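Running log. JK asked me to keep both predictions on one page so they can be read side by side. First protein, sequence followed by its tokens:
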Amino acid sequence: MLKLDLPRLERDGSLSFEASVPPDDPLWEGSDLRFEGDVLVRGQASVSGSGEIVVRMRVEGLRIAECRRCLAPVRELLDEDFIVVYGDAGEVGDGEESDIRPLAGDVLTLDLSEALREELILATDRWVECGADCAGLCPICGVNRNEETCDCSPDEPDPRWDALRALQKE
């Protein structure tokens, strides 16, 4: 999928790559990321002067999320740029925070899949809305207020708070 040939990268100094990740790829399992169509990944990997591998990626696709107010599906154009740095596993200390990902010693290929997954999870907004004027769901009857109105009164107290209200009156 997203693998770099490290001997070729060492020989050439830089390497371009392009991959298409399908929406049902196991890479997305458990991440809450859903896509409509393939996710296109293009990038350039190069070896820095100090020996780290610097990978620049551009990711494009159509993400599907749920509106946080009314739960309607929301399509969102995904267009993100990432830079990921890999270094010698000995340079990245245990327990230390570092932006450098460890690179094992005698590796012939570098799999970028996990880095792509992590960067996308961090870059995407979990709390999308279908629109600024979204009325959401009624907290009492659950009707979608964008599609129909309900007769629920917002002044009706929530019975789950009765015990606390009783303490407040004491």
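And the second, directly underneath as requested:
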Amino acid sequence: MAKKGQKTETAPIKWNQAQTLITCTLNDGKYNTALLLASGFYFGLRVGDILKLTWNQILSERFIIEEGKTKKERMIDVHKDYQKLTQRVAKHYKIEESNKRPVFTHQRRDGDPEKSISRTAANKRIRKAFEDYGIKTQNPSSHTLRKTFGLRVYENNGRTEDALILLSKIFGHKDIATTRAYIGLTQERITNAYLSL
């Protein structure tokens, strides 16, 4: 475990592992955790932005969020699989589409339904889900979710330079080299170089 303030490296997981994680948490009644994971995998947002999400946003087909780090507005088109998940969870919690409360609040009875959990609490939930369902990766955290989103977009767009340019724009990176390293492609190339000898 890293010391406070020390950077830790994370790695993306395969898309089928991401889907397994969402399904397992949902089937075990961990609805809020399933939504937290899915929000990271499907939106590629930073954890601070995920924690700002409200029910009316995630229950819509499209919403705009102002990113905390960049202060730029970002339009999010909601994937149909994510929509099915949110509708199921909202039905379970009896949430109306017009509800503007934060999604990721404490699940305890004494938790404040008007206040989102902390980044630390979100990362603890994520780490616990990975441990509970045996999904192995380096330092599971909200970055893992964001990197998994990035890798999925890259692979679905033919693993091309254009895909990296697209991701660089989505992530707000200064160049595609940063994006390549962020989703683990640089390490993948190094590994392949060693293995191809």
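Observation for JK regarding the second prediction: Residues 64 and 75 are 4 Å apart (CA to CA).
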